[in-house]
From TrEMBL:
<dbReference type="GO" id="GO:0006083">
    <property type="term" value="P:acetate metabolic process"/>
</dbReference>
<dbReference type="InterPro" id="IPR004372">
    <property type="entry name" value="Ac/propionate_kinase"/>
</dbReference>
<keyword id="KW-0963">Cytoplasm</keyword>
<dbReference type="GO" id="GO:0005829">
    <property type="term" value="C:cytosol"/>
</dbReference>
<feature type="binding site">
    <location>
        <position position="16"/>
    </location>
    <ligand>
        <name>ATP</name>
    </ligand>
</feature>
<keyword id="KW-0460">Magnesium</keyword>
<protein>
    <recommendedName>
        <fullName>Acetate kinase</fullName>
        <ecNumber>2.7.2.1</ecNumber>
    </recommendedName>
</protein>
<dbReference type="GO" id="GO:0006085">
    <property type="term" value="P:acetyl-CoA biosynthetic process"/>
</dbReference>
<comment type="pathway">
    <text>Metabolic intermediate biosynthesis; acetyl-CoA biosynthesis; acetyl-CoA from acetate: step 1/2.</text>
</comment>
<dbReference type="GO" id="GO:0000287">
    <property type="term" value="F:magnesium ion binding"/>
</dbReference>
<keyword id="KW-0418">Kinase</keyword>
<dbReference type="InterPro" id="IPR000890">
    <property type="entry name" value="Aliphatic_acid_kin_short-chain"/>
</dbReference>
<feature type="site" description="Transition state stabilizer">
    <location>
        <position position="182"/>
    </location>
</feature>
<feature type="active site" description="Proton donor/acceptor">
    <location>
        <position position="151"/>
    </location>
</feature>
<feature type="binding site">
    <location>
        <position position="9"/>
    </location>
    <ligand>
        <name>Mg(2+)</name>
    </ligand>
</feature>
<keyword id="KW-0808">Transferase</keyword>
<keyword id="KW-0547">Nucleotide-binding</keyword>
């Protein structure tokens, strides 16, 4: 009987999982899968390490009555059937918000769960689902080791000035500060930089995590120095459905002139803005790139304009720029987005090779570029699995 580690990433409309061997440091999962379109018509996909689709069994047919909790219960049953000769010894969870208290992977206890529950208002779209997954596993096997891995932890290395808002001091002391997110992704990219940059890995690097949720992180000595997201995951870049940085006066205007309450404003800013709001078409970058509608192009141009502007704005936090790394769904797959962003950064001596960029190559910087430009796949699950192994030893 071999020991396995299960990683879970419960999002607002998806549930991703991966299975890793417990006794090897490999970053490659033995199995990966996910439920997509939860709340509508859930679709289950699962594949082995070599990319083969596996038998879905009872999970082949699902309907809108299956919420996160029901799907997770079915998944755990399916995994037990598929890995009957193996033993899951730990479950690692992506948890979006760890606040100021949790600076690294943490073993889940009732006290930890209570503390994480208090952070739900800071990540209302994700934290409830993250915690629901932890509780579902606890009901399945109360004695099983569960590890919470936080998207905020990687950014706790930042100096105080990078974390502060210019608001009354008492609010900062209460925890109204810049936390930053996508930390698991940045931690993985930081861990593999030496493979691609050599000695420059400890230099001045900006990583662009571009997906339905998007952010930037300025890294030096492979530690976070500054990031584009702030108190919540609403700040910074234009995203699929989220607005990114917004003049607070707009919110006051919506309250006073439009008589919108907090719930309506939250819904608009988190779910109806971003690429979807600007284009009026979709939050999916691929769909927008295929569209002939001028609003689609405007949304793409705005996305890239804001990204380039914020990349430039992060350069002072690390004193220059040695490398720019694109990762996540859009960053890894959209040659157009990478080109539009890099074209706006030409003044920083950033330039890309058109052929390498169109092929999604790892190194896409041109020979003339003074800044290394890379495309690296992220692997948050590998970081979570490592944390589980460390606790299991």
């Amino acid at each position: 009987m071999s020991d396995l580690v299960l990683t879970l990433n419960a999002g607002s409309s998806s549930l991703k999982f991966a299975i890793f061997a417990s006794n090897t440091p490999s970053a490659h999962a033995e199995m990966t899968g996910k439920f997509a379109s939860i709340g509508r018509q859930p679709v289950f996909t699962v594949s082995s390490a070599d990319g083969r689709s596996l038998d879905k069994g009872a999970l082949a047919t699902l309907d809108n009555t299956f919420d996160h909790e029901k799907l997770l219960a079915l998944l755990l049953l399916w995994l037990a059937q598929h890995h009957g000769r193996h033993r899951i010894v730990a479950v690692g969870h992506r948890v979006v918000h760890g606040g100021e208290r949790f600076e690294g992977p943490t073993r889940v206890t009732e006290a930890v769960l209570d503390a994480l529950e208090s952070l739900v208002p800071l990540a209302p779209l994700h934290q409830p689902h993250n915690l629901a997954a932890i509780r579902a596993v606890a009901r399945w096997r109360p004695d099983l080791l569960q590890i919470a891995c936080f998207d905020t932890s990687f950014h706790r290395s930042q100096e105080r000035l990078a974390q502060l808002f210019a608001i009354p001091h008492a609010l900062s002391d209460e925890g109204v500060i810049r936390y930053g997110f996508h930390g698991l992704s940045y931690a993985y990219i930081a861990s593999v930089l030496p493979e691609h940059l050599g000695s420059l890995a400890d230099g001045r690097v900006i990583v662009a995590h571009l997906g339905n949720g998007s952010s930037l992180c300025a890294i030096k000595d492979r530690q976070s120095m500054a990031t584009s997201m702030g108190f919540t995951a609403l700040d910074g870049l234009v995203m699929g459905r989220r607005c990114g940085t917004l003049d607070p006066g707009v919110i006051l205007y919506l309250m006073r002139a439009k008589e919108m309450d907090a719930t309506a404003i939250e819904d608009m800013l988190y779910r109806k803005s971003g690429l979807l709001g600007v284009s009026g078409i979709s939050n999916n970058m691929h769909i927008l790139q295929e569209s002939k509608d001028p609003r689609a192009r405007e949304a793409i141009e705005l996305y890239c304009y804001r990204a380039a502007s914020l990349i430039a704005g992060l350069v002072p936090s690390i004193g220059g720029l040695d490398a720019l790394v694109f990762t996540a769904g859009i960053g890894e797959n959209s040659a157009l987005v990478r080109r539009l962003i890099c074209d706006r950064l030409a003044w920083l001596s950033v330039s890309i090779d058109s052929k390498a960029n169109s092929e999604n190559a790892v190194q896409i910087g041109s020979e003339q570029s003074c800044v290394k430009v890379l495309v690296l796949p992220t692997n948050e699950e590998a970081i979570i699995a490592k944390a589980c192994r460390d606790y299991s030893e």
